[in-house]
């Protein structure tokens, strides 16, 4: 009876080891990422600047302002 028990135990252990190996192989196959055709992260310097930008003129009055000329409120 003990020999039959030991062979059953070995058979059960072999099945459990094979099952665990199959699960590990399944995890390994599905955990790999597919190869990307293009880079995932875009570069920050992809913007282009126009050659001729419009120049904005500052609206400066003809005479400078003086704080002594202001009237108190």
Characterise this structure.
By secondary structure, the chain is mainly alpha-helical. It is built from 1 helix and no strands. It has one helix at residues 2-31. The longest helix is centred in the first third of the chain and has 30 residues, at 2-31. The radius of gyration is 40 Å and the shape is rod-shaped. The model has no long low-confidence stretch (mean pLDDT 77).
- SS content category: mainly alpha
Q: What is the makeup of the main sheet? A: none
Mean model confidence by pLDDT = 77
Helical region count?
1
Helix content: 40-55%
| Uncertain residue ranges | none
How many E-type strands? 0
Strand content: under 5%
Taking Cα atoms only, what radius of gyration do you get, to the nearest Å?
A: 40 Å
**SSE topology string:** H
| Termini Cα gap | 112 Å
Which word captures the global form?
rod-shaped
Concise structural overview:
The protein has 73 residues and is an all-alpha fold. Helices cover 41% and strands 0% of the residues. The longest helix has 30 residues, at 2-31.
